[in-house]
Design goal:
- It is a single chain.
- With 318 residues, the protein is α/β, with parallel strands linked by helices.
- The protein has helices at 12-25, 44-53, 69-75, 91-98, 103-122, 142-152, 181-188, 201-204, 254-259, 261-270, 288-298, and strands at residues 29-32, 57-62, 79-85, 127-133, 156-160, 196-199, 223-224, 229-231, 247-248.
- The protein has a 6-stranded parallel beta sheet.
- Helix 1 (12-25) runs parallel beside helix 2 and helix 6 (142-152) packs parallel to helix 7 (181-188).
Length: 318
């Protein structure tokens, strides 16, 4: 509930209007990763297909429980990646961590297996992966998850930190991540020619700290809440951050919000001396790496060069 805010009804028309606006103004990609669970929306499948038809790269992060097998053949060709958020490889641990029945672990595994089969059968380019949101107390699940991903046949398994708010409401002790280095390296050793295990080292070993004070990332990666709220990032969704809220796409088109004075007022404020990203918002947000790069670029520490060698995968999501 760290992101709780005013809820608006996200109708099919509002979602389609947003996707149309995004394509028109030059947005390259849309990730349905949600501050909840995107598959709960009755328009989930329609949104993916509409976005793809508009020329947008579409991607999804989900717990997978509500995905309908009968529609996987329809949406997998339209997705750049499909990531399953799973934090345990054993049914009892999964039930404890995810707060659900053990049977859901088996259900999710069957869905992932079906996605792998469809991808192979149809020769699709969609990247399939598993993600673990790691808390130190779940460390015994790291290696089993690395093995599970390989056994099922997904393309990758990624291990990431857990983000806390600026008040430390979740009580995450980032110092405890340092003791997991050997285990994480062992997990990565399960990588193979067609399977990658990767820990997000830069964030896991950051101690939960930022090296930059201003926030430059949101114009490059804007976030919208499942309630339709447009804000610089998910860390600022909560109602207590109303001064950073730009508007709601259920009420106003995204194109209008993007062109508004309010948009630039908010964007300029978080990039000014009046905002300190080190203390005024949560840790290690979605825009963290973008902010690190832009901070160094702004100060002349690095240059703006194109990628060397082969074009990176998922370029439109970087």
């Amino acid at each position: 509930m760290l992101q709780a805010n005013d809820e608006k009804r996200m109708t099919r028309d509002a979602i389609f209007r947003f996707l149309d606006d995004a394509a028109e103004i030059g947005v390259k990609a849309v990730s349905l990763v949600s501050d909840g669970e995107s598959t709960c929306s009755p328009y989930f499948y329609d949104a993916i297909l509409r976005g793809k038809a508009n020329g947008l790269d579409m991607a999804v992060g989900t717990n997978g429980i509500l995905l309908r097998k009968g529609r996987l053949d329809e949406i997998l060709p339209a997705l750049t990646y499909l990531r399953f958020n799973i934090s345990a490889a054993e049914p009892s641990a999964y039930a404890r961590i995810m707060g659900c029945k053990e049977e859901y672990f088996y259900k999710v595994c069957r869905i992932v297996e079906e996605c792998v089969k469809i991808k192979k059968r149809r020769g699709l380019s969609v990247t399939l992966g598993l993600q673990m949101v790691l808390l130190p107390e779940f460390k015994e699940q790291i290696i089993p998850l690395a093995k599970l991903g390989k056994a099922i046949g997904v393309d990758y398994f990624v291990i990431k930190h857990c983000s806390d708010d600026e008040k430390g409401s979740l009580g995450i002790d980032y110092s405890k991540y340092f003791s997991l280095v050997d285990t994480l390296k062992e997990a990565e050793s399960h990588s193979g020619e067609k399977y990658i295990v990767k820990a997000k080292w830069s964030k896991i070993l950051s101690g939960g700290m930022r090296g930059y004070s201003r926030c430059y990332g949101p114009p490059f990666i804007m976030q919208l809440s499942g309630s339709g709220l447009v804000a610089p990032c998910g860390m600022l969704f909560n109602n207590r951050y109303r001064k950073y809220h730009i508007g709601n796409i259920a009420e106003t088109s995204f194109k209008e919000l993007w062109k508004s004075e309010r948009y630039w007022k908010v964007i300029d404020s978080i990039a000014s001396d009046a905002f300190d990203a080190r203390s005024m918002c949560g840790s290690l947000c979605l825009q963290h790496m973008v902010n690190e790069f832009l901070w160094d670029l702004k100060r002349g520490g690095i240059g703006l060069d194109g990628p060397e060698g082969e074009r990176p995968l998922h370029m439109n999501f970087i």
